[in-house]
Write a structure and sequence with these properties.
With 340 residues, the chain is of the alpha/beta class. It has helices at 8-35, 134-147, 163-179, 195-201, 216-223, 227-238, 275-281, 306-312, 318-332; strands spanning 42-50, 53-57, 63-68, 80-85, 90-96, 102-106, 112-117, 121-126, 150-155, 182-185, 205-209, 248-252, 258-261. Bound molecules: guanosine-5'-diphosphate, magnesium ion and zinc ion (ZN). Magnesium ion binds next to α5.
């Protein structure tokens, strides 16, 4: 992915344009609120968002097109909100309920921009093709650990593998099971291969992440037989039309649980990360972290490193430590890195 480097002047210009747009929108929203009939405020859940347009679902499942008051910051999919009805189809979000979790990515100026809120489970989707990358998996795992999400690894497209290949693939990814992560097998092609996933989705608000081509969209489609109907309702409620599919969307699953589908999630990552967060984000490292000879051990080639000893004893996977070191180097190399 190309990272855009903007000059200070460009950033200021973007900031100015955005500020003007914000003010225009704020005037419109306050105008609407002033002219609205006094109706009691209500609670709801943001189920789709496109620019300033939100689809808010009320307790009965009815959808409303809402704009949000400017002082609330960035309201996103999954947010629980208080909103004021304007008429039978429209409303204004006036308050944001406390978030259990936020998934974010850095914007053009490096500030964290939320993508989705109140997610409880991150599902990392892998497949025999495209060839999985352990580094990316470890990045997802780290982020989920830092945010505090339940983690599930789903190996998709198992229909492509025969018994022998399946065994090899399982062995390759068994390292994550040994660490304590749940690994399940799925296929978006065969209905019965979704049973375990369906069970694991119940009671959670989940999001699927993974490389392009592993089958995330196919899984969403297979899990939501009424996807077209749900998209149609959203598109009608928000007036988004064809943009609906490029918006981050929140779906209720027929068998229980909720799924957030977000095109932006591919690039989600932490804008800031401390050394302690990084170390603890590799959960199997935790028991060894305080056993290194030097308290500021870089877990590199220093003498007396407890992590290295654990690798030698087969307690920690060498690839995990290598990926940790690489991330630590990158962390040290950024100005955003914070000391312990
Ligand atoms: N054989 C097989 N192909 C799959 C499966 N899931 C997805 N695919 C195919 O993999 C390709 C990429 O799938 P897609 O859902 O677009 O992946 P995404 O980029 O992660 O959203 C498509 O051609 C799908 O038909 C699966 O379980 N088995
Ligand atoms: Mg897709
Ligand atoms: Zn060490």
């Amino acid at each position: 992915m190309v990272r855009r480097h903007l000059s200070q002047r460009q950033k200021e210009r973007i900031e100015k344009i955005q500020e003007r747009r914000r003010q225009q929108l704020a005037r419109r929203i306050e105008g609407v609120l002033n002219s609205a009939e006094e109706e009691p405020p209500r609670e709801g859940r943001v189920v789709a968002r496109h620019g300033a347009n939100l689809a808010v679902e009320d307790e009965t499942g009815k959808l409303y097109h809402c704009l949000s008051r400017q002082n609330l910051g960035h309201v996103v999919c999954g947010d629980r909100v208080v909103w004021q009805p304007i008429d039978t189809r429209n409303g204004v979000v006036t308050a944001l309920q406390e978030r259990r979790s936020v998934l974010a990515r850095p914007d053009y100026s490096g500030h964290e921009k939320p993508l989705a809120a109140n997610i409880t489970q991150l599902i990392i989707v892998l497949a025999p093709e495209p060839e999985p990358g352990e580094y990316l998996i470890d990045q997802y795992l780290l982020t989920a650990e830092v945010i505090g999400l339940q983690i599930l690894i789903a190996i998709n497209k198992i229909d492509l593998l025969d018994e022998d290949q399946r065994r090899k693939f399982n062995r390759r990814f068994s390292v994550y099971e040994r660490i304590g992560y749940s690994v399940i097998r799925t296929s978006a092609r065969h209905e019965h291969d979704l049973d375990t996933l369906i069970q694991r989705l119940k009671g959670h608000t989940s999001i699927l992440v993974g490389q392009s081509g592993v089958g995330k969209s196919s899984l969403v489609k297979a899990l939501l037989p009424n996807l077209k109907v749900q998209i149609g309702r959203l598109s009608e409620a928000t007036g988004l039309g064809r943009h609906t599919t490029s918006a981050t969307t929140f779906y209720s699953l027929p068998e229980g649980g909720e799924l957030i589908d977000s095109p932006g999630v591919r690039s989600f990552r932490l804008a800031t990360l401390s050394r302690t967060q990084l170390e603890n984000g590799f959960r199997e490292f935790r028991p060894y972290l305080h056993n290194c000879r030097f308290s500021n051990c870089g877990h590199g080639p220093e003498p007396g490193c407890a992590l290295l000893a654990a690798v030698d004893e087969g307690k920690i996977d060498a690839c995990r430590l290598r990926n940790f070191r690489h991330m630590a180097e990158r962390l040290a190399g950024t100005d955003r890195a914070r000391p312990r």
